[in-house]
Design goal:
seven-stranded mixed β-sheet, 28% strand, Ribosomal Protein S5, domain 2, 22 strands, Nucleoside Triphosphate Pyrophosphohydrolase, 32% helix, Alpha-Beta Plaits, 505 residues, alpha+beta, binds (3R)-3-hydroxy-3-methyl-5-(phosphonooxy)pentanoic acid
Length: 505
């Protein structure tokens, strides 16, 4: 089967007509803890084995796609028009899969890592690009389908559709419809990834060519599927039990085995540089002296360090240039205010830790409303599928937490702008305390301030990192639907809504 047939099967009758002015999307970088190395189908990027990765939160690629008015594709990376590189050619080949006659695209990529040096840049780019096209053409494909499409651009891209830990299941179907990412849903706020860039030069051999040569010539390659299958089971167990040593040790030996097998290819593939070996030795030395730090390495000389928040200071001293990423924390919103029952601030805590340990904290829920034909309508938000809890559920316009130095109204206006691209004057109508435990173990224990406002804006260019969808809904219809289909809505919505209704009666 070829790529075009897969695209046709996924898009079926989805049209290329009626595009928006612009499609846009963000996708995070993902770092494999159990590597994908070797294809069973080169055309469709179908892997020999399953793999497992962690996405790097808000570090990744943001892409905007428009139909170009000029009769050619234009690809800008970080503001610069890029012409005729291998990377641009492969992006154009990928765009060919989604190109109605005489259509050219202007693609604007903003990415915060260098490209093609083994830092997983292509994964987040293809994952963002399929989502941007999905947005441009209003296809509303689900993430699984988008993951299959992203795989056609770069195998590992199929894991960048989700936050957190993602498994790419190998699948058995020749068309690859069962070979895509699966989000694991576990969160681990203390986990840190350090990007240690040793060399910014473009890699001399592409991962595609290196995989091909390894599979075809390395005598050790037949041991790789058995090794990865075992590592995958161990990693999943380590994630479930939050066993850092088991997780990081397994990831490190997995990477070292992949590099050993590459070195066994004819001729050998060696991405490792003397500086890589030096950095590995520093890591092993730190470990010998009691600092639990490990690494993983992809198709390049650079290392990704794995450690826990508590070791940050020691690791920073050993690697002063290290870029440290907290994959599970949202930097916009990292600290929440812990309060007592009377809403008196008593401490601050990292957002995810507060939700893990169930501390009572200050929050707000915003309701944007309007009057249409004598009835009240509410602006509802559907939370993005992979939010840390209540993904896919419909809720009020926007909910979040004020930062430690922020008053509630300014925080709510800021988040309303960031999530919904909407500005409104907001009024406080009351507050309530709310407790819920979610299936992934997180706990909401909030003192929730309810705010209302209104807007004349009809449609919104929402932040796709947070918001799956939005709609205006008549209050009367919402109240009925909340009774008949409560599972479609977040658990706090009815409680917050009661406060809004009480304030207006
Ligand atoms: O998706 P590709 O073709 O860039 O290959 C990625 C290969 C590794 O980064 C080395 C491993 C992985 O699973 O990400």
């Amino acid at each position: 089967m070829n790529k075009f047939a897969v695209v046709e099967q996924i898009l079926q009758n989805k049209p290329f007509t009626n595009p928006r002015d612009e499609g846009h999307a963000f996708a995070p970088i993902n770092i494999a803890l159990c590597k994908y190395w070797g294809k069973r189908d080169e055309e469709l990027n179908l892997p020999m084995t399953s793999s497992l990765s962690i996405s790097l939160g808000s570090k990744g690629a943001y892409i905007r796609v428009t139909i170009n008015t000029k009769p050619k594709d234009e690809i800008y990376i970080n503001g610069e028009l890029i012409l005729n590189t291998e990377f641009v050619k492969s992006l154009q080949n990928f765009l060919d899969l989604f190109r109605p006659a005489k259509t050219f695209y202007k693609t604007t990529i903003t990415i915060d890592v260098p490209i093609a040096i083994g830092l997983a840049s292509s994964a987040c780019i293809y994952a963002a690009l399929v989502q941007a096209l999905n947005h441009l053409y209003r296809w509303q494909l689900n993430r699984t389908r988008l993951s299959i499409l992203a795989r056609l651009g770069s195998g590992s891209a199929c894991r960048s559709l989700w936050k957190g830990f993602v498994e790419w299941r190998v699948g058995t179907s020749p068309d690859g419809m069962d070979s895509h990412g699966f989000p694991m849903g576990h969160v681990w706020p203390e986990l840190r990834i350090g990007l240690h860039v040793i060399n910014r030069n473009k890699k001399l051999i592409s991962s595609r060519e290196a995989m091909r040569r390894t599979v075809a010539t390395a005598k050790l390659y037949p041991s790789w599927p058995t090794k990865t299958a075992k590592d995958l089971v161990t990693l999943k167990q380590a994630i479930r039990n939050q066993d850092f040593k088991l997780l990081a040790e397994t990831a490190e030996t997995n990477a070292l085995t992949m590099h050993a097998i590459m070195r066994n290819a004819i001729p050998p593939i060696i991405y490792t540089l003397p500086e890589t070996i030096q950095a590995r030795k520093t890591i092993w030395e730190l470990r010998n002296t009691g600092t639990p730090v490990y690494f993983t390495q992809d198709a390049g000389p650079n290392l990704k360090l794995l450690f826990l928040e508590s070791e940050t200071k020691t690791i920073r001293e050993a690697f002063p240039e290290l870029e440290i990423i907290a994959p599970f924390s949202n930097p916009e919103n990292a600290q929440v205010i812990l309060v007592d029952e009377n809403d008196k601030a008593i401490d601050t805590k990292e957002k995810l830790i507060a939700h893990q340990q169930g501390h009572l904290h200050r929050a707000f829920s915003v309701f944007i409303m309007r009057k249409r034909d004598n009835s009240i309508e509410m602006l509802l938000q559907q939370r993005r599928e992979d939010k840390y809890h209540s993904g896919n559920l419909w809720s009020n316009t926007c909910c979040s937490h004020p930062r430690p130095d922020e008053d509630i109204i300014s925080a709510a206006q800021r988040r309303l702008q960031e999530e919904m691209n909407c500005f409104a004057d907001l009024y406080r109508v009351g507050k309530f305390q709310y407790f819920a435990k979610f299936a992934n173990g997180l706990i909401e224990n909030e003192l929730d301030h309810v705010l209302v406002g209104t807007t004349e804006k009809e449609s919104f260019l929402v932040n796709r990192r947070e918001v799956q969808d939005y709609k205006w809904m008549k209050l009367s219809v919402l109240l009925k639907d909340l009774q008949h289909n409560p599972d479609k809505y977040t658990p706090w919505l009815p409680k917050a809504l009661q406060i809004v209704l009480a304030s207006s009666s």
